[in-house]
Design a protein that fits this description.
The chain is α/β, with parallel strands linked by helices. Helix content is 29%, strand content 25%. The chain has one domain: TIM Barrel (Alpha-Beta Barrel), CATH 3.20.20.70.
């Protein structure tokens, strides 16, 4: 179900001011996830359910200020109404549309691409650590098809959250060498004030310099056209 819509973001859609639609439910159990209420819909009160009509009305009220909308989760492609929601946004507003995904549903990804302007996919860790990073729910081969699909698009990004014990610099380099040079890659800092697993709550994150140095190495190795850091 649709959990909420936030007013504005300057970082969710590159070079555009966007609103964000949050859809609850996820097929992965990443222990470091900072949105546990979106992974487990049973934690939500039913009052937070929004209809497509309400979403369109809220977006139309913001047109002229926002330029785009991002649909995120959870895993948005699990939502049974995702295709209808996307079509409604594209037909009833002038907004650019971005979809976030964990890449485990390539068939559903293909279904929404014709109405999507930008796709962002989370790459959890190196292939050898993918099972651990997803809470024993996915292996790297489960997302390989989606990676290949996304790399054919004109506008996309892959992103990895740098979580101690889950993904380090060597994992990132191994991952990018495995999939080949990408258009845009984002390294995200880990935030531990709220996590799905108590084991990761309040765990210290990597220092800012470690993440920035990792980004510099990726650039030097020419593994991405553009590398960004999100702290």
């Amino acid at each position: 179900m649709i959990r909420s819509l936030t007013g504005t973001s300057l970082i969710e859609y590159p070079d555009k001011i966007s609103s964000i639609i949050f859809i609850s439910g996820c097929n992965l159990q990443c222990p470091y996830c900072h949105n546990p209420e979106l992974v487990r819909p049973d934690m939500l009160d039913q009052e937070f359910r929004l209809t497509h009509k309400e979403i369109i009305e809220m977006l139309l009220e913001r047109e002229g200020f926002i330029e785009a909308v991002t649909i995120t989760g959870g895993e948005p492609l699990l939502y049974s109404g995702i295709f209808d929601l996307i079509k409604s946004i594209k037909s009833e507003t002038c907004l650019s549309l971005k979809v976030d995904t964990n890449g485990t549903h390539p068939r559903r990804l293909k279904e929404v691409l014709h109405h999507t302007d930008y796709v962002a996919m989370d790459l959890k860790s190196s292939p050898s650590k993918y099972l651990k990073a997803t809470g024993e729910q996915a292996v790297f081969s489960d997302v390989r098809e989606s990676i290949d699909i996304i790399m054919t698009l004109p506008e996309y990004e892959f992103r990895t959250t740098m979580v101690p014990g889950i993904v380090d610099r060597d994992d990132v380099i191994e991952l990018l060498q495995e999939i080949g040079r990408v258009k845009r890659y984002v390294l995200q800092s880990f935030h531990s004030h709220k996590t799905l697993s108590a084991e990761f709550r309040d765990m210290p994150a990597y220092p800012k310099g470690y993440i920035e140095d990792t980004a510099s190495i990726i650039r030097d190795m020419n593994l991405a056209e553009e590398v960004a850091v999100r702290l």
